[in-house]
Structure formats: C-alpha cells, structure tokens
Amino acid sequence: MGAMNALSDVPDGATEITLDLQRHCYSPREAPRAGDVWRLCQAAAVRDSVARGWPPQRYTEEGTGFVVYGAVAVHTRPIRYGEPLVARTWLRDFRRGILSRREVRIYAAGELAAAATQRWAHISADMTPSRASADLLAAFQPLPGGGAELRLPDWEAVDGPRFEQTFRSWHTRVDPLNHANHPSYVDWCEEATAAAVFDAGGDPHALTPVAERVSWKSGIAGGEVVTVRGQVVGVTAAGDVGLEFWIGVGEERRASAWTVRRLAGGDLLARLGGSPPALDAI
Length: 282
Hints:
Blueprint: E1 15-19, H1 34-51, H2 56-62, E2 64-75, E3 85-95, E4 99-108, E5 111-124, H3 134-139, E6 156-157, E7 162-168, H4 183-199, E8 207-216, E9 225-235, E10 241-249, E11 252-263, H5 268-271
Antiparallel strand pairs: 1-3, 2-5, 2-8, 3-4, 4-5, 6-9, 7-9, 8-11, 9-10, 10-11
C-alpha cells in the first residue's frame, strides 16, 4: 500500500456544506463509527449534487444514477458529539462521462477529521454504465488541484489470524437501488473484527478506525446471506494492524475491503493471536 497522502489540499471552488452527525452514530468510545463517517461523506456528495440541480428525484425521472465502485477513507481525529461539521467536496475528474472521482474532506470545529476519495460510475436504469447527459456533465465540472488521491498507509506484510462471520442482509436497510448501501460494507468488516476481538477476550469497543478501502464487484441485496472473511495481513510503522476482507454470498465475491485499525490501550495483533513481522522485515 502507498503512503498516506497530504489531506489538506482543497482547490478553490470546492463546495462547502454544513453537516450533522446524529447521536446514534456514536459508539461507547464516544466516537462515531467508521461506517457513519462514510455516510457523512456520502451525504456531502448527495448534497453537492442537489446544489448543482441534480436531486435524487431528477435521477429517477431521467432513469440514470450513480453507484460507488470504490472508495478510500482516512480518519485523522475523532469527531466529538455536537462539534460543528463542515464538508468540502469536489470532483477530481469525470472520465468518458462515466467514471468520476470525488474528494471529500470533513472538518470538525475547524480541524480536519476525515477524508475520502470516492469512485462513482454513472449508470442507466438497468444498472449498466452509461455516458452522462450533456446537462449533467455541464453541472459536474472537475476542479484541478487537490493533491494526490488518498491511499492507505504502508504496512509490513504478515500472515496473520483469520476469522469469519455470516449473517443475513436486512431487507429494511437497502438503498433506493435495492442494494446494501456502500457504508454497510464497512459496518460488516468492523463487526466481524469486533467479534473476533471479543471472542479473544478483548474489548470490541476499543477498536479505533485509522483508514479503510473498499472495492466492489457487484452489490448485495436485502435478504441475501452474507459471508465476511477477514485476515490480519500487515502492521504499520505506528503499530496499527492492516486487515483484508472477502465479502460475498455463497462462494461469489461481491466486494473486497481493507481496513487499518488500532486497539485503544492494547495490541490488536497480539489480542487476535498474531505475531509481529520479523525484525529484518521492518
């Protein structure tokens, strides 16, 4: 994985949006769950679309839309409940009128708290990629600048512990496309990791998010039985743990994910039963 890039480069002309994070988004750590920070970034993208004259209803009327096919997020500090939140967002590019990259920066009380790079695909009503209309392309003009695309932190590879969780996707938590919304995949990886920590005798609420990346092959609908297979695959210079996830239905992979986590007041790798990389590998 590449080194984490600078997060503070926001080009002139980025949209600024005031947001709010509800109380139910907070865990017993008094910090928001990673998936809810992803929802905050999604809200920034949707609000920007509305401001440009493209509310969700217009996509429905025109038989088009956007789906996320990849995203990266990094967390620079916890968001405390009640802090004023501002998002700054812009399009990095819009290739062939189909594939776009959106940057989102979340500021809490004026300090950078989270950043995301979202990869969106423009689709037609039958869920196939399609070129956006001239009106939409005119509304979504990319902005130059903004630094390099976000990446996960570097880590040294380890062949660490594995764990697995299976559950049924909720019918009542799908999005308007009848799919589990993309932050749900972060929730699933987090719950599988928390369950592994709990089963090992640790505190699942001590997990602290550092960064995540998710890449989608296809969506998961309500009612499908989902399997999440996780493995510890790396350790960063800061001692944080990199995990890789296979997310699928039956033996069909629908998405892949990578998370970087630390355990507040403890050693996550040791808690899960793993060993640090050899000294000559660091």
